[in-house]
Amino acid sequence: MIYDFDKPLNRLGTDCEKWDGLQKRFGAADVLPLWVADMDFPSPEPVVRAIAERAAHPVYGYPMRGEDYYDSFVAWEKKHWGWDVKREWCNYVPGVVCGVAASLMGFTAPGDGVMIMPPVYHPFRNTINAQGRRVVNAPMKLVNDRFEIDFEALERGAKEARALILCSPHNPTGRLFSREELTKIAEICERNDVLVISDEIHSDLVFWGKKHTPFAMVNDWAREHSITLMAPSKTFNVAGLVASITIVPNAKLRAQVDHMIGGWMHIGGGNIFGLVAARAAYAEGEEWYRQMLRYIEGNIDYLDEQLKKRVPQVRLMRPEATYIPLLDCRELTGGALGMTADELQQFMLGSVRAAMNEGTLFGAEGEGFLRINLGTQRANLEEFVRRLEKAAEKLPIRF
Ligand SMILES: Cc1ncc(COP(=O)(O)O)c(C=O)c1O
Q: What is the pLDDT of residues 356-384, one digit of tens each?
């Protein structure tokens, strides 16, 4: 089946955060929504069909995941990333952030240090703080305009941390970590006895045939000292169905994670539609998935080329993974214009009429950057470039 990712789709009035939540989040309902990480494309047809078929049965009682529930996910991991996940390592968690929070609750105590690598997905910091743990920053560093892991900062941070929340691939820098980089992280964590909570929600969103390496695969220590979190939500655009997965090879760790999610919080039941969607997505979503990746690659190329040609002072940080890369706006915030982070956001909202996430949301390291969502119809990106070009002409210094 050929999917038409260019086809316009009106999401207004569907209780969706990205479009219906604009007024609340940005104070303007008529701006182009290029924020929050979901895509404006319909989910794969087999997913839509599976949900419709299940919805046709009018009893929506407690769901149960059968023995074979994880088979399609296990096969997916093997096929795409060569990871031999055992069915018994897997369990349900509603959301990935919820899995991160449960892991922190289970394995750290108030006051413990928890390391993150900013600029990074902001709920990590929020949940560490909310649980009275201590944020230990090991910031990524800009090397030749590319964010790289700062291994010295990681080594320093590991000495005062009980756990590392790894974001791999890394949101918002779009970095896909190599096996060598992940092995170095594992060695640092092993030396310092740091548990790794590996958020791999973006692991399927890697471009141009590159390969994701699951952290637990890099060596024996990593397998036995990590909790991996994955989900169909980004891959197949089903974030609203809350059906994420914990993968914990170490039986002792697994028992504790399962206890936190199933026993302590009693949130291991799940949603009947998430269950049928996840199973169908991993089993039958491949065709859609491949076409979606090609479309996003086209979006990346389009935006990159157009910005270079028409608004060269705003640069796309080309992502290796994730459809939510950074726009480098440091020529607007630095130099002669010298906009503050707030002024940059006001320029985008007020003059360009586009809503993106502020880089500073992800940490101070995000200053001068905005995060843009490329999981949308190309026409929306064309409109964005048109608006940006026009607004830029009115800035005191012409591009
Ligand atoms: C790195 C990362 N982790 C987790 C999430 C959210 O996961 P969930 O909705 O399953 O909690 C996102 C969403 O953007 C994300 O980018």
A: 999 999 999 999 999 999 999 999 999 99
32 in the same domain as 84 = no
Note whether 149 and 185 are within 8 A (CB).
Answer: yes
Q: What is the extent of the structural domain holding 158?
A: 56-283
| Dist CA 21 CA 7 (whole Å) | 22
Global confidence as pTM:
0.97
Domain boundary among 257, 283, 309: 283
Query: What is the Å distance from ligand 1's center to 311 Cα?
Result: 31
Ligand 1 shell residues, CB under 6 Å: 37, 95-98, 121, 167, 171, 199, 201, 231, 233, 239, 244
Domain count, the chain: 2
pLDDT tens, residue by residue, 41-85: 999 999 999 999 999 999 999 999 998 999 999 999 999 999 999
- Using CA atoms, how far residue 106 sits from 227, 264, 294, in Å, is 11, 10, 40
Q: Do residues 107 and 160 both lie within one domain?
A: yes
Residue from 17, 96, 170 to probe ligand 1 pocket by mutation (most atoms less than 8 Å from CB): 96
Quote helix, strand, coil % in the chain, to nearest 5. 45, 15, 40
Residue 336 alpha carbon to ligand 1 centre in Å: 37
